[in-house]
Amino acid sequence: xxxxxxxxxxxxxxxxxxxxxxxxxxxxxxxxxxxxxxxxxxxxxxxxxxxxxxxxxxxxxxxxxxxxxxxxxxxxxxxxxxxxxxxxxxxxxxxxxxxxxxxxxxxxxxxxxxxxxxxxxxxxxxxxxxxxxxxxxxxxxxxxxxxxxxxxxxxxxxxxxxxxxxxxxxxxxxxxxxxxxxxxxxxxxxxxxxxxxxxxxxxxxxxxxxxxxxxxxxxxxxxxxxxxxxxxxxxxxxxxxxxxxxxxxxxxxxxxxxxxxxxxxxxxxxxxxxxxxxxxxxxxxxxxxxxxxxxxxxxxxxxxxxxxxxxxxxxxxxxxxxxxxx
Length: 326
Prior knowledge:
Layout: E1 2-7, H1 8-18, E2 23-26, E3 31-38, E4 43-51, E5 54-58, H2 60-64, E6 71-80, E7 83-87, E8 90-93, E9 99-103, E10 108-112, E11 115-124, H3 132-138, H4 148-163, H5 169-190, H6 200-214, H7 223-229, H8 234-242, H9 248-265, H10 274-280, H11 286-297, H12 301-308
Antiparallel strand pairs: 1-3, 2-5, 3-4, 4-11, 5-10, 6-9, 6-11, 7-8, 7-10
Helix pairs in contact: 4-5, 9-12
């Protein structure tokens, strides 16, 4: 867990560190504190406490710079006295227990007038198994605290935040993915246009995605093989994955890299070689694995392991201690 304490003048920098860039306006007595739990695989959970008025704006220019896989925020209002969230021409009034989804690729504004405490799930857009139009429709709509799905998600996020320090890297990643599945249930209640997932296409897509996650170590798993194993054409496989805004190949590569990231962060696997990890997630060539990992995460697999391994658990073949123990 990482802890940030900041004044109003410092908040913009802090937000860019663990969330998304914002332009903020705060009252003279504003103080903030955020505790951050990194779950891995482009998933972060953090609890923030604001004392004093704040307005946080994401401008059109900021939103235009967001890449295709940029962040999503689901903000659970644990305590707020007066506030709102605006995006896509909608304004969601913030009240204790409500949840609101916001996307980084569109301008937005959040305002709270006095004191607020919120629990926020920050994740990569591509992890949400919804089409672009469905995500847009779900943004800036309040999820009611009395809704059963919302009660499940809010309770789960609170327990996950408290327990994350005691979980392994792989367990944190699995727990974060489970939170995304719960979030989809919440969004079905919020936006009627979000599909229930009961149709045959959604069932087949879910089967294919599950197959990918369960067979990452198979180096022969390609788009053609995935289609063959599910008795559909390659063209139909592409049309199914287009429903969640990606392609079969991109989804397969992303899942392999997410699994590798979790393994590199797990102290129980600290002695496992990079070649073995690459093979375990379906990369036959270590150089291909290293290039793909660096392109996705901005550093080499060895660099990731060095910076994310717990203190005292560095593998023997690394020459220096972890720089950022958690």
